[in-house]
Specification:
single chain, 26 helices, 2 strands, 71% helix, globular
Length: 606
C-alpha cells in the first residue's frame, strides 16, 4: 500500500498538471472556440475537484496527514530552502472547497465572458490564479508560501484591471497593488528576521526554534502582511475598489483565493501567535474594528457589488477575531463556509446585473423574484447564510466564534464591537433582499436571462447546496484544535441569534420607510403607529439623532464651557478682578504692598 506521503504528493502534482493543461492548449493561435478543446478550463477544474477528494476521504477515514519534501531550492552553510508540501487538515480541507467554488466560477465565466475578445487569456489568468492559491495552501515552508503569496497578488492585479480601457479599472488595480505591497513588505521583513535569527523557514520548526526568543517584532510583521492581503482596517479600501473587475473575478477573489491568504498565513503560524499575548490582542482588536467598520459601510452602500464587497471585509474581520481568540480552527471553519455563499452572492449579482443592462444600483432594482426565480431564491439563501440564519452554512461558524468570544477572558469592548457588526450584517443582508428580490420592478430596461442555461443556474445551484449543507458537514468532519465550551448560559448561547434578530428588525424598519414596502394596502399600519411618537422617524434615524444631540451637548456644555476654550476666560476672571483692584491708584494700596514686601524681605534675610 502506498504511503500517505506518496499518495498526497502525487495527487497534488496531478492536480497542478491538470489545471495547467488548458494554459498550454490556449497557446495555439489557431484555436477557434474554447468549446472545441478536449481539456476545457471547466472540465479540468471539475476533474481536479473530484481528484482532490481522495486525500479528504483519506483524512476523514484514517486521519492521514503528512509532510513531504520534494526538492531543495537553496542551500548554504547556515540556511536551506526546500519546497515542502504540508498535508494537514487545513490543506486537505480547503483544497476541495477552493476547487469546488472555482469550478462553479469558471463554468459561470463561460457564459458571462463569452463575448469578450480575450476570453482565452481570461481563462488562463483564472487558472494561474487558482494554481498560485493551491501552492500557497499546500506550502509547508515559507519560501513556496511566499511564491504562492506573490502569485495571487500578481494575478489579482491583472484580473482587477482586466477592462483596461476603463480608467476606474486601472486605478483599482493599482490601488490593490499598493495596499498589497505594504503587506508584502511586512512578510519580507518577517522572512528576513526568521532567516537571520532562527535559521529556518520550515513552518513546523518555527515554534521549536522560537523558544526563549522575543517573537513580537516578526509576529507584528506577519500581522501587517495579513492586514494588507486580507483587507483589514487601514489597508481595506482596495477590496471594494476591486469591484471594477469582472464579476467572476470578484467571486473568485472574495471567496476562496486572495483575500483569505492573509488569514491562512495567520492560521499557519497560529502556534507562534498563541505564545504572544500582544499579537493576539492586536489581531482581536484589528478584526473587531474591521468587522464593524465594513459592516457600517455596507449598510449605506447602494451598489450591489460594493455591498457584497464590504460584507467580505466584515467577515474577514470576524475571522481575524477568531485568530485573536487563539481559535484558528474557527477562523478556518468560517473561511470555508464563507467561500460558498460569498461566491454564490457574486454570481447571482452578476446575473441580475446582466438582466438589468449593467445596472448595479439596488434602488433601481426590485421584483427580480418574478423575472428570475431560481437566481432570486439562491440570492436570498446566500444573504440569509451571510446573516447567520440558523442551520445554514454561516450559522455554524459565526455562532461558534461569538460563543468562544463571550466565554473568553478578553476585553468586553471587542465583544461589543463584534456583536454590533453581526447585527449590521443582518441589516444589509435583509436590505439587499428587499431592494433586489421583493417589491415591484423599478427599472424599465430588462433583458431577462434564460435560467435554463446550465452555465447560469448550474454553478449557482451547486453553491446554494453548499451554502445550506457545508457548515454542518465541515464543522462535524474537522475536529477543533482546542476543547470547545460544552455548557453555556442561555444568554451567551443566544447572543449571536439575538443580535441578528435585532438587525433584522432594524432592516425591516428602515426598508419600510425607505420604500413603503407593504404589498397589501394597510399592512404595516400598526408598525407605523408605533413610531408616531418618534416624529415619524425610523428607529435608526431616531437613535442617530439622539446620539448627535448627546454628543453636541457634551461637547458644548462640558468640553467647551468647562474644560476647553470657554473655560479659560472663566478661570481667569478672579485673578483679573484682583489685579484690577490693585491697579486703581489708591495710596493705601501701594503703602500696604510696600509694607508687605518689606516684611517678607526681612523675614527671609534676617
Amino acid at each position: 500500500m502506498a504511503s500517505p506521503q506518496a499518495m498526497f504528493s502525487t495527487q497534488l502534482i496531478s492536480t497542478m498538471v491538470l489545471l495547467l493543461l488548458p494554459i498550454f492548449t490556449t497557446l495555439n493561435p489557431y484555436a477557434k472556440s474554447p468549446s472545441s478543446w478536449r481539456f476545457t478550463p471547466e472540465y479540468v477544474v471539475k476533474m481536479a475537484f473530484f481528484y482532490s477528494l481522495l486525500p479528504l476521504f483519506g483524512y476523514l477515514i484514517f486521519q492521514a496527514t503528512t509532510t513531504a519534501s520534494t526538492t531543495t531550492l537553496l542551500k548554504t552553510q547556515a540556511f536551506t530552502a526546500t519546497w515542502d508540501l504540508c498535508f494537514d487538515k487545513f490543506t486537505i480541507g480547503f483544497t476541495p472547497i477552493a476547487l469546488f467554488v472555482s469550478w462553479s466560477i469558471v463554468q459561470f465565466s463561460g457564459w458571462y465572458m463569452h463575448a469578450d475578445p480575450n476570453y482565452n487569456r481570461f481563462m488562463k489568468y483564472l487558472l494561474v490564479f487558482l494554481c498560485a492559491m493551491i501552492v500557497l495552501v499546500s506550502a509547508g515552508h515559507l519560501f513556496p508560501f511566499f511564491i504562492g503569496w506573490e502569485g495571487v497578488g500578481i494575478m489579482s492585479f491583472l484580473l482587477i484591471g482586466w477592462w483596461g480601457a476603463r480608467a476606474n479599472a486601472n486605478i483599482s488595480a493599482l490601488h490593490a497593488v499598493k495596499a498589497n505591497r505594504i503587506g508584502d513588505a511586512g512578510l519580507i521583513i518577517a522572512l528576513a528576521w526568521t532567516a537571520m535569527n532562527l535559521g529556518s523557514w520550515e513552518m513546523a520548526d518555527l515554534l521549536v526554534l522560537a523558544n526563549n526568543k522575543d517573537m513580537t517584532f516578526p509576529l507584528m510583521c506577519f500581522i501587517l502582511a495579513a492586514t494588507g492581503k486580507s483587507a483589514q482596517f487601514g489597508l481595506h479600501p482596495w477590496l471594494p475598489a476591486a469591484m471594477e473587475g469582472p464579476t467572476p473575478v470578484s467571486a473568485l477573489l472574495h471567496s476562496s483565493t486572495m483575500v483569505v491568504a492573509g488569514i491562512f498565513l495567520l492560521i499557519r503560524i497560529s502556534p507562534l501567535l498563541g505564545t504572544n499575548s500582544w499579537a493576539l490582542t492586536i489581531c482581536m482588536w484589528l478584526g473587531a474594528v474591521t468587522s464593524l467598520y465594513a459592516a457600517t459601510y455596507a449598510t449605506v452602500q447602494n451598489d450591489i457589488k460594493k455591498i457584497i464587497a464590504y460584507s467580505t471585509t466584515s467577515q474577514l474581520g470576524l475571522m481575524m477575531v477568531a485568530i485573536g481568540l487563539a481559535e484558528p480552527h474557527l477562523a478556518f471553519l468560517h473561511m470555508c463556509t464563507h467561500a460558498f455563499f460569498k461566491a454564490m452572492l457574486f454570481l447571482c449579482a452578476g446575473t441580475i446585473i446582466h438582466a438589468l443592462k449593467d445596472e448595479q444600483d439596488i434602488r433601481k432594482m426590485g421584483g427580480m423574484f418574478k423575472i428570475m426565480p431560481i437566481t432570486s431564491s439562491c440570492f436570498m439563501i446566500g444573504n440569509l447564510a451571510l446573516a447567520g440564519t440558523p442551520f445554514l452554512a454561516g450559522f455554524f461558524s459565526k455562532d461558534a466564534i461569538i460563543e468562544s468570544l463571550t466565554t473568553s477572558p478578553v476585553n468586553s469592548f471587542a465583544l461589543m464591537l463584534t456583536l454590533i457588526a453581526t447585527s449590521f450584517t443582518a441589516v444589509y443582508s435583509i436590505r439587499m433582499i428587499f431592494y433586489v428580490v421583493l417589491g415591484q420592478t423599478r427599472i424599465s430596461v430588462l433583458s431577462p436571462i434564460d435560467e435554463r442555461d446550465p452555465r447560469v443556474v448550474g454553478p449557482i445551484l451547486r453553491l446554494a447546496w453548499g451554502s445550506i449543507a457545508a457548515g454542518l458537514f465541515i464543522s462535524t468532519a474537522l475536529a477543533p484544535l482546542t476543547i470547545p465550551v460544552l455548557t453555556l448560559p442561555l444568554s451567551y448561547k443566544l447572543a449571536a441569534l439575538l443580535v441578528s434578530i435585532a438587525g433584522l428588525l432594524i432592516a425591516l424598519d428602515l426598508t419600510s420607510y425607505a420604500t413603503n414596502f407593504w404589498p397589501v394596502p394597510g399592512q404595516g399600519k400598526q408598525l407605523k403607529t408605533v413610531h408616531q411618537g418618534l416624529s415619524f422617524y425610523p428607529t435608526m434615524h431616531f437613535l442617530i439623532s439622539l446620539a448627535e444631540l448627546l454628543v453636541h451637548s457634551i461637547m458644548n456644555k462640558f468640553w467647551a464651557e468647562k474644560i476647553g476654550p470657554k473655560a479659560i476666560p472663566e478661570a481667569n476672571k478672579i485673578p483679573i478682578s484682583t489685579m484690577r483692584k490693585l491697579q486703581r491708584g489708591y495710596i493705601k494700596t501701594y503703602v500696604a504692598i510696600f509694607l508687605l514686601t518689606a516684611a517678607f524681605v526681612l523675614f527671609i534675610f534676617a
